[in-house]
Write a structure and sequence with these properties.
By secondary structure, this protein is mostly helical. It is built from seven helices and no strands.
Length: 141
Amino acid sequence: MSVLLRPILGATLLALASSLSFAQTTTTEPSSEADAGKASRARLAVCNADLAKLCPDAKGGKRRACLKENTAKLSSECATAYADVEAKAKAMREACADDVKAHCADTGAGKGGRGVVQCLRSNTAKLSSACNAAISARFGS
């Protein structure tokens, strides 16, 4: 390799490594409800082939509904990932039920939880330790 190209290649690799590190940080530490959804989608990426086969037209939340409806037909990798995501979501709902009532009742909790995650994440100082632990377990933050 040319002596002139080494510094350029080194700087390029360093910049690439830094950007990959940033991308991993933003993926594993969601800061909003949209980012939290991205974290779940990333864990369920192993299900893309299953979704393409079972529900090719499913978008957004319909994708998880499709996985639920077709649990018996999922590949073992997808079934494991789906079960993990659902178990963490259930644990968070249970651990945070009182916190949602106390701090996030007006965010639409009774309508499927739209906005509840963002509310909980905005009020971490006020939440129970069990709720904070469940949020960390679910979203890796």
